[in-house]
Amino acid sequence: MRTAAVIGTGLIGTSAALALSGRGVTVHLIDHDPERARTAAALGAGTDDPLEGPVDLAVVAVPPALTATALADAMRAGIARGYLDVASVKGGPRRELEALSLDLSSYIGTHPMSGKERSGPLAATADLFEGRPWVLTPTPVTDTEVLNLALELVALCRAVPVVMDADAHDRAVALVSHTPQLVSSMVAARLREADETAVRLCGQGIRDVTRIAASDPRMWVDILSANPGPVADVLSGIAADLDGTVAALRALASADPAKREDGVGAIEDVLRRGNAGRSRVPGKHGAAPAAYEIVAVLISDEPGELARIFADAGRAAVNIEDVRIEHATGQQAGLVQLMVEPAAAAVLSATLRERGWSIRH
């Protein structure tokens, strides 16, 4: 691939353009808002000069509701040898294109499983896709050359290709992406009118659950509007669990010992099913999640403290598998939770104590 056109210079489009430009591909940036294209060009994502001829690959990175129209316009104009989109739903745009009676041999639907709470070209980074799954949904008529161009794009972005059926993809993202966004927003919405005293008690748990609730509502309305059925199906199952859990909690307040026992059983059941589901989420390098031990260290909110604690862990010859920071409310300090292999926890704790760190249990 020597040349590409990126249509839509938001977070995903600009990030892909940055990755391609950084690896020597000439990228032409196209957007209905010329200012966004100019911003992306200023970031080094490519040029906003008009196309002078067909490019190797056109990447359509517009909202799902506009994807089929943008693809059809580009294909009719013949701007590229191959066309793909990066919309977060795949079945709908493909069916819209089929209804337009276009030759779809030059098209493949794709979806990079990566993003941020922020949107727009200024949020873009060339490494946004590194190590992340990038779904490809070829059809029986997809030309081999176009599939190879898509695979080259994924490789240049250093992502991991995953081939799926379009409708199976939409059901999967409803479960692992779209529904979590709604549930996170619903939990965060409880905080809107909460008493200030309650909000000040927020810890790492509520921060974890509500992190993605900071996402752009307009963007998510577009996404959910393109995949409503599968998302509603997943939410229906969650609603059934919620109803059962509410009934179980009411039973726990009952004076009847038998009802309380039933309530305990129901609550334990949903928690255990949650344990089982969580255990299936891939861990480091895509393997099954490991049972790490946490070494919690008190850290002050000062420049260089994180670097110092990682350097001291290196002196102990201990590999940090994961890390989490829990900030203390109203204080210039917090807890760094260092996740390590169980056999390394004692060594790391001892070394950090010797280096003057305060270990918390």
From TrEMBL:
This is Putative prephenate dehydrogenase. The lineage of its organism: Bacteria, Bacillati, Actinomycetota, Actinomycetes, Kitasatosporales. It comes from Streptomyces clavuligerus. The keyword Oxidoreductase applies. One of its GO terms (molecular function) is prephenate dehydrogenase (NADP+) activity. GO terms for biological process: tyrosine biosynthetic process. Belongs to the prephenate/arogenate dehydrogenase family. It holds the Pfam family PDH_N. InterPro entries: 6-PGluconate_DH-like_C_sf, NAD(P)-bd_dom_sf, PDH_C, PDH_N, Preph/Arog_dehydrog, Prephen_DH.
